[in-house]
Amino acid sequence: MPGPTSFPPSIRLHRPAEFKLVFAEGRKLRRAPLGLSYRLNAGSQARLGLAIAKKAVAAAHDRNRIKRLIREEFRHNRARLPAVDLVFFAQPGLAELSNAAFRSLLADLWTQVIERCARSSSAPSAPISAP
Known about the structure:
Elements: H1 16-25, E1 27-31, E2 34-40, E3 47-51, H2 60-77, E4 84-90, H3 99-122
Parallel strand pairs: 3-4
Antiparallel strand pairs: 1-2, 2-4
Helix pairs in contact: 2-3
């Protein structure tokens, strides 16, 4: 049984269709130079996808560092997150952030996702009117 800070395949987005669904139907949060698309899922846990493009972060070692930091912070915050699919995407300038600044940016995004998902799941549904 994987521990609370593991990163098993069940909490990753794998297929292009899963990414497309999050981008098409999800909500977006942008905190330049990092963006996040998220969508509530029907599962019981949060899942993570990374779309860190070469166009936004040219150097492979910077892309790998960014992905490693996102995965690490996701593992540590996974228990607080609702059942939501998350896809992070980079914008130009992300590679210039220090690790501390990047972690602070991620902490802000985790808090906002948790708050927004809590609001949307507790919002009353609109009454259905009869014709």
